[in-house]
Amino acid sequence: MCHAASDDFGHRAATQRLRAQLAAQLQRRVDAQSGADAERGERGDVERTRWDYVRQLENQLAVKTGLLDEALRLHRLFHGRLVSLSEGLTWKDQQLEQLARSERTAWRQAEKDTQEMRQWRRRAESLEEENTALRDELRESSENNLRLRQFLDVLEVQAVKGYGLRSRTFSQQFPTEETKFEQTRRVSEEQLPPAAPLPALIRATPGESAAKLSFFLTPQEAWAQVGSSASDRLCGVNLERLKVDEPTITSARSRLDRVDEAKVAEEAKEETKQASISSTKEVLEISRDSGQRSSANSPKKRGNLSSAAPPVLGAPHPRPVRYMSATQLSALAAVPAAGAACGSVATMAGDARVSPAPRWPPSPTPAAQPAQPQQPQPAVKPKAAPLLPLPAARHKAAR
After folding, report:
1. What is the pLDDT of residues 27-51, one digit of tens each?
2. Sign of CA dihedral 387, 390, 393, 399
3. Is it true that the peptide bond before 373 is cis, omega within 30 degrees of 0?
4. What is the value of pTM for the model shown?
5. Radius of gyration for the chain, computed over Cα atoms and rounded to the nearest angstrom
6. Is 165 strand, coil or helix?
7. How do the domains of the chain map onto residue ranges?
8. Distance CA 313, CA 319 (A)
9. Packing angle between helix 167-191 and helix 326-333, nearest 10 degrees?
């Protein structure tokens, strides 16, 4: 704007100078014409010609002044347009610089995204490799689980045929129940006061032996010699319920005579069980070898879980894979011990010994016979300690 003002001031000064020059020229011409007219004398047409010339010069000056004003107006207009174009050019330069900065930022973000994409791609490849390894391990574990399931089915069949239907359940419940009863008994013995002595009328004589205590004493006499324990003080002992008739003692003696026969049958059953287990192990070894050969010959595809080992026992409709827990595995290992422990029951607590229980259904009780002299019996191999019942249940069984 300062530049435009200075240009306008310069044009005005030039216009004033031009007007002054024109006025001076006009004055000189008028003076010259006046001198010439004075020399020629008074002629009427000379004065008219001079004023015509003056009017002509004034008209030319007015036209030149209008042209100068139009030129100044156009100059100002063009100067304003030049200023607006300069401002637009400056704004365009700023916009181009901003776009250049945005482009550089976009390039940096693109490089960062490319690096992140490469990292995700490497992670996806590692996850794919890990997934393939896990699928292979899952396939192998499913094959092993199938073989263990078949072995468990074989053991269940053997348990049903040779050791009764409750062998597996007993093997699972036996350790827990035994531990629980032992803890209860110890806590009861620690918390209860000392045992009170029983009446002297029901105590055994000094001449009775340990063998008679174990086999031929009545429950009343046995309790008199052993004494009341913590469980008896807790639950209470009714001496009237301990009375046993003579036929019951005779039946117990007849059951003792059948110990040898039961022992022989048990040994035969044990031999049969060992032979069956050995044959089952051989079958499982053969099936495992065949399964390994088939899995080695068949190519492993990624993510394919259908290449499981075929059933070894040749079942028409194999059951789905069943995963065994730690409890089932412990029960599987405890099946032989449970089969040996199923044939025994508990007797009195404290120092009492465990005697074999009668088989179910019980054989008919023979008629009372006179006491026979006892024959020396072979030593019976002690069995695993079973779950001891409470005194109330033991008294009810004795009654």
Report:
1. 888 788 777 666 666 666 666 777 8
2. positive
3. no
4. 0.25
5. 64
6. coil
7. 2-111, 147-191+237-295+321-351+382-399
8. 12
9. 100
